[in-house]
Amino acid sequence: MKTIIDILKLSTDFLIQKKISQPRRQAEDIIADALKIDRVQLYMQHDRPLTDPELELCRSRLARRAKGEPLQYIRGEVDFLDCRIKVTPAALIPRQETEILADKIVKELATIELKGKSLWDVCCGTGCIGIAIKKKFPDLNVVLSDVSPEALQLAKENAQLNEVDVEFYEGDFLHPFTGKTTDFFVCNPPYVADHEFAHLDDEVKNHEPKLALLAGPDGLDFYKKLAQELPNYLRHGKAWLEIGKDQGKALIELFSKGPWTQCRVEKDWAGNDRFLFLES
To answer: How far apart are the C-alpha atoms of 267 and 269, rounded to whole Å?
Structure first.
């Protein structure tokens, strides 16, 4: 029978052959996850033989990775700001940048009395932002919305997984909120320009939902709608948006025409424009 160290070496060689980046680390992650142990234990138990079911599970997951399927979809979940978030191809995989955004929001909300106030997470996908915020602030009324019923179902499962009580609206953009207003608004909308799609990593363009990525010729379709419509829904409150790394200047120009007392772009850890903050 093959041991853990045998499978780790064979798996690394296989991923090298398939031109998968960081093959050793990815082999470690896949095998450790399949065996339900951490990476350190792979080496502490290096001479342990694998059972036939364990071997088959490792092989099937490696085959999926070799075809370019993102590791997060193979594992089926990610950690996100003290939450465990289930991920499927129904929604984008939560990125580090989105976790930074959620953390910024949490730090700002910590300075505000939230009882009786509401926050909308529009284009919620997995629901990671709204769920993480609700987990930190149980008194805040949080609503998650998405046009995709599959994504919204995933968000519902994540709310149950993290034991938070949030509301869900299905529908396009702000349409489900007609006649309502909120105190806080967060949105990570599609912001990839049509011409940029072909240049995305294969893992993204071949596996993650186009609906959550593409936003017209310049990638600004959803922001243009927001610039027009958001002032009708936000009552003297704050809004946070994730944006593309080259969109900061265009969005400042777009939103500076609105009724905002504050309108600024903030950067991610790589120094790229990544977040737009609005206050009315």
So the answer is: 7
Cα dihedral 163, 144, 136, 183 sign: negative
204-262 pLDDT, tens digit each? 999 999 999 999 999 999 999 999 999 999 989 999 999 999 999 999 999 998 899 99
Q: What values do phi and psi take at 252, rounded to 5?
A: -60, -45
d(CA 72, CA 115) in angstroms, rounded, equals 35
For the chain, domain boundaries: 4-67, 78-279
Q: Assign 3-state DSSP to the chain and report helix, strand, coil percentages, each to 5.
A: 45, 20, 35
pTM assigned to the model: 0.94
Under DSSP, is residue 94 helix (H, G, I), strand (E, B) or coil? Answer: coil
Phi and psi angles of residue 258, each rounded to the nearest 5 degrees, phi first:
-95, -175
Q: Kindly tell me the sign of the dihedral angle through the C-alpha atoms of 173, 82, 138, 235.
A: negative
Beta strands in the chain (DSSP E): 77-80, 83-86, 118-122, 141-146, 167-170, 182-187, 234-242, 262-267, 273-279
Both structure tokens of 98:
């989105």
* CB-CB contact of 184 with 118 (8 Å): yes
The residue to which tokens 């609503």 are assigned: 143
The domain covering 78-279 belongs, at the CATH homologous superfamily level, to: Vaccinia Virus protein VP39 (3.40.50.150)
pLDDT for the residue 258: 84
The per-residue pLDDT for 224 is 96
